[in-house]
Structure formats: structure tokens, C-alpha cells
């Protein structure tokens, strides 16, 4: 089962991808987390991507992202299927992906800008294990990770000014993907403002048909 999760930033794509990948025993591939890891390791490509692109709410160039994803899909954990979370984000990326592998469903998790901004500005991530907390999944102790007791921090791309830019970029460059996949009969829509468990159930119903 090869899935793509679409939707604006803050609709819970990452949270749902983690849950669905565990349920279906398929890989969860987050291009955003891949770039963040490279930047944290001091990798020149990751640092460039952060400082010039996603750290400012802009998209990483297609050729860099496509190459990264193509190599990732060759890994052993993708043999049973995968969820792409954060890719493709542009029509050229989607067209390139079509030449690489077949996609079963594209799930669009929808939400309003007001709800997205509220969710993202309250989001915090563990500096050690990278677990994300927020309105729907708050930590038991303020500022401390439940799992490893690491300190929680706000990511650069979760500041309101950056969020607004990310939404603008999404509407201009990524939203056309909805029509792209709709025309191919692959698009399925899920209400991203429902409770987390309901969203998960809705996605599983689609994926298991």
C-alpha cells in the first residue's frame, strides 16, 4: 500500500502517518524530518535547505527533494509500502514520482487556516527523541517529554510569521496537487478538524478498501 498524505501544514499529517504506518506495517517517510536531521548533523545540504528554504517557510528545490525521496524508496522498509508525508509538494514533483513508483491513494487532510495557526503555534518537539506535542497531544509535564524527559522546544517553522508564509506557499504551489490527483482518481478527502482517532479511522477505512 503506497500512500501520499496531502494537506496544509498543521493538519496532523505527521501524527497520522506515524499511526497508520504502525497499523499497516509500512514505512513513514517525512521529507521535512529528513532535512531537519541533516541540518542538525551539520550536513551542508541540510544546512542549506534550512537556511535558504524551509527555515524561512519556502520549499526546498525539486531536484534536491526528488533525489532524496528516490533514494529513500529503495530502502528495505519500503518493500511492503509507504506513506509519503510532505512529498510531493509541486506538480513537477508529482510527475517525477509517477515515473518512479505507483501510488494507491492520495489522502487530503483538510482544515481551516485559523485552526492550523492555533495548532502550530502551540506545537513543541522534544530535542532528544523528536516526539511532537500540541493541543491534541499535550505533555504530562509542561515543557518536558513524556518518553525521554528531554526538553521541549518550538521549531523555527512553527512561529506565526513563518506559518503564514508556509500557508501562502501551500496555496500557491501545493494546492494544485489536489486537482492533479483528483483527475487521476486517486484523491480521497478526510476532515482534519475531527478528533485524532476519528481521522485515523477514516484513513484506515480508505487504505483497507
Placed side by side, the strands forming the largest sheet appear as 2-3-1-4-8
Structural class, from secondary structure content?
A: alpha/beta
CATH superfamily: P-loop containing nucleotide triphosphate hydrolases
Q: Sheet bearing the most strands, described?
A: 5 strands, parallel
Number of discrete domains = 1
What is the name of the CATH architecture? 3-Layer(aba) Sandwich
**Cα gyration radius (Å):** 16 Å
CATH class: Alpha Beta
Query: What fraction, in percent, of the residue positions are helical?
Result: 40-55%
Oligomer: single chain
Counted beta strands: 8
The separation of the N and C termini measures 11 Å
Output mean pLDDT.
Answer: 90
**DSSP helical segment count:** 9
The parts where pLDDT drops under 50 for at least 5 residues are: none
Overall form: globular
Give helix and strand order, one letter per element, not per position: EHEHHHEHEHEEEHHEH
